[in-house]
Amino acid sequence: MFTYSQAYYDLRNTLQTIYDEGEATAIAHAMMEHITGDDKLQRLTDKDKLFTAEQQTQFDSYKELLKKAKPIQYIIGKTWFMNREFTINESVLIPRPETEELVDWVVKDNAGKSPTIIDIGTGSGCIAVSLKLDLPQSTVTACDVSSGALLVARMNASNLNATVEVKHIDFLNPEQVETLGKYDIIVSNPPYIPESEKASIHANVLNHEPHVALFVPTTDALLFYRIIAEFGKTHLNEGGLIYCELDRDYSMQAKDLFEAMGYTDVEVRKDMAGNTRMLKAMLKK
Length: 285
What we know:
By secondary structure, the protein is of the alpha/beta class. It is built from twelve helices and eleven strands. The strands form three sheets. The chain has a seven-stranded mixed β-sheet, sandwiched between helices. β7, α10 and β8 (215-216) form a beta-alpha-beta unit.
């Protein structure tokens, strides 16, 4: 049996063949906390404590999955977003810190209000559920084309006691889109990575996260921004707002697109890493 210390260093050293040192260290700590139930400080205190037979078996199994670049969030089936625990699986993207910044922007702009909100491409439901909980007077609808994603979104809404209407909508199907109502806010983290960039994507994303939520045709990188802008023209109330996460390489093109389609006060913001990754636009009719 490994001691806690031996297990941590064994896993970290293994992961450094796949990830950089910082990420390998973070994953190793997260996995050790999941297996032992102890935080970093407690494990340091108990560094010579031996795994139980069950913990050793679990460690060995998880290590093999991690060696195949399977993200730890999919292995343990959960992740944290906006200080809440969300269930996830390979039907949905792993929520990112940058998306928390998008949600925070919406919440701060609309605090104390009671907007009707639609989340396009909801995935795990992290955006929709967080907005409902942080803007409790809001009415929130979450849409996705993936049946698997919708199951996860419904589970998270239920687990976190968030009243969110979840709908199966393909935004590439105009007939389905026209069944939707009118809203004060459209929010989306849409697919935006051109397919030509697949070769540069790390294996932990490319081999495990859903491609339908990641990629767009190389010849039409702004596909979903155009669809969202068109949807807003007929489904936003007067003064309605759109908030989108962006591909940093196409952020200014996305801004130009919304302005060309008649939106005003179009603003782009940088994320914590200094990348232009968020957009806000207003519709004045």
